[in-house]
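request received
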Amino acid sequence: MIVPLLVAIPIITIFFSFFDTRSEYLTLLKNTFLLEYISNSFFILVGVLFLTFIFGVTSAYFVSFYNFTGVNFFKWALILSFAVPGYIYAYSLTAFFENYGTAFSILTFLFGDSEYNQYIPKFDGLIGSIFSISFSLFGYVYVLTRASFLYQSHNLIEVGKNLGFSTKRSFFKIILPSARPAIVAGLSLVAMEAVSDFGTVSFFSISTLTTAIYNSWISFDDLSTANQLSFMLLFFILILFIIENYSRKSAKYHQPSRGFKSIPKIELKGKKSALAFTFCSMLFFCSFLFPVFQMSYWTIKFPKYFQDIDLWSLNFNTLLLVFLSSVCLIVFSFLSNYGNRVSKSKLLNYLSAFSISGYAIPGVILAVAFITFISWLSDTFTSAFGFASFKPLFIGSVIGLVLAYFVRFFSLSFNGIRSGYLKINQSIDDSAYLLGYSKFKTFTRIHVPYLKSSVFLVGVLIAIEIIKELPITLILRPFNFETFATKAYSYAAQDLLEAAAFPSLCLIMWASLFILFASRYILSDK
Amino acid sequence: MSSNFLEIDNATFAASTKNKVNNVSLTIKKEGEIVCLLGPSGIGKTTMLRTIAGLQNLQTGKIKLKGKTISSEDYNLEPEKRNIALCFQDNSLFPHYNVLDNINIGSKRNKNSKFRYSDNDLIKILHLEDLKEKYPHEISAGEAQRVSLARSLMSKPDLLLLDEPFSNIDQSLKDELQKRIKDLLKELNITTIVVTHDSYEAFYLADKCGIILDQSLKQFDIPYNIYHYPNSIDVVKFLNRGILIDAQVTGNDTLKNHELGTIKGKFVKKQSIGSSVKLLIQPEDLEHDDKSNLILEVVDRKFRGTNFIYTLKTKGNQTIPVFVHSHHEHQHKIKDKFGIKTPIYVDHLVCF
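response:
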């Protein structure tokens, strides 16, 4: 009951705020920039979907069906892009391509002094946002599509061969359509993340619905407008959520059977091998190595900023949030899943389904709605019962942060443990009961040991998300409380990209470390 | 106090409206008896086992084990307190334990039992020697079934429930395992209910068989009686070991079929002379005779190793199965003529 209640807070708050009195700022927005916010959000969405589809599906296809130089390396290396959030990618793009930036320095070093700035393309504004977000998110499409290719296509390809299909025809007529649910699921996740993005668009000064929400709260101190804009964005996301859910339902028909056979890969030689290698190398370079090199270069080039950073407290704060949130999320996810399994209550099932909708709520909205709700609750209690305000306990505190992360990432942890539970046949529980095990003993002796790898994976995925998370942390953090993400953002917001390099690099390193821990499970072939 | 080992009294077992068995009453009088429940797939046999095990609630009626009520409409003793083991048809081994650990996981449950087999004894009996260290995902479905059986036996249950225990086991191993398990259950005196759709398996294993059809227990009797004295046309059709032909009762021990002529034998139930009945003819009831005047045409021939079953057609297009030893001096091909010894003598005349 607690979890759905928590998730309901932002949704209900925004719903009621929508019918609240319209502020002057909202009227002003409607007459001026609202259409621009919506169109920018839309263009970013379309651009990101297009690029992530190309990057994700093509790389998954090469890695799943062909043997070429480096294929085993690319298999896991491509998921390292998850470690680079869009906003850090944006810093790197700007740092490299800006006037007198890294590209300029390289050209000067190689060819001597000249006016290179006019020849160097500029990746900023909408294009920069689309590229940054696409490179950081294509991993969703890659992982899901690859899994779908591995699980489904072997028998289908053989049927295709029997019917006389060429490799190309098999791909377009059989493999791609059969992987459609996985591709749509990946693209839906990308879409939700893209419209929720705050850090990247804010850095490039692109006005979208998320930046408008943030600005109405931070610049105009207008919570009601922030909530009303949130309502529009949530409606947008609701449509994406429905599409994603629909595609997932279809995807379950493509689960691997017991007789799983891995796909015999086709050996690529000559130009074809070079093409596949070049594509995957470029993608790996652009999505991961490029920002790492750029941030490393600046960290080394500007060592004075390195001394300004309290590395110990940044590490401590980031890991504290990771630890507290992971523990809460895993405990409650275990309880919810176990409750569903044992009770088989429909009500509990519906509540769980509602609880996992939190992942569709963008961080900015969640944080703003959380503040609105706590303020209202505190004021109500203060005026009704004369209680002291409890706002400081939740707003600008670690507790508030953990609660907001909880709502945002509960689906990740609940679904992670649920997928582990789905592998435990109900007859295994029944067998345990019949061998004299109580429900508690079945949980501790059968479920927990079996699900420990799922728990580990969930913990790692939560860690990656929280390390990268920006808007919630930015809005709800205690005064002077910095994580790598907020530190990098605050430097970048002051146009001190050189200073943002080191915290960005640390963030990427931490996230990469956790991704490497999880890669065995994310890329499992069986 | 009741002295029966297991009593199922007017019980309704239901998993859904379709998967339901109504008003079942059966008794296992002595400990150590083996009962087989036979019926087509999806009829509710597994639901019965799950309910007896306590995994599902009983809809109506009562189940008593050793005189103690374990299930009724408003009471369900928890499965972990029943000391009943259920061996599932699908793989229910604990995936994070190896075969040996799986077998031993319930072994401490019933310390007072007279059960005197060790895990290694069961491993030998069930041919699991090479699998001890393997994990469930590394063994075949048939092997998993044997491990599951060993695990159930090691928990020393009062009542053992086996759901299609040999369904995934190779035929070559099945016969041997059936014998070993039957001997073992008898030696350990473990009362067992086996669910199967294979009548040969049921007839071999069981002291008594129950036939479940059309949501009810149609017949509960010893295997010989189930085969030779089926109590309804439904049971005959389900066993599929004979045909029903139209006949007229002509005397206290005779009937007449317009194509087969006079049929003699002993009526299982008294029939009034002159009445029209459906008579059960099983393959072994007819005897081949090349010199007979009753000549039929061979339309099909099934070779079963020890025998042939010929399907013969009468002039009126009625088909009749006939059993012939496979060492019979000559074989008949399709469309050959085939003589039947007359008058036909059927040991027990089952009429409906």
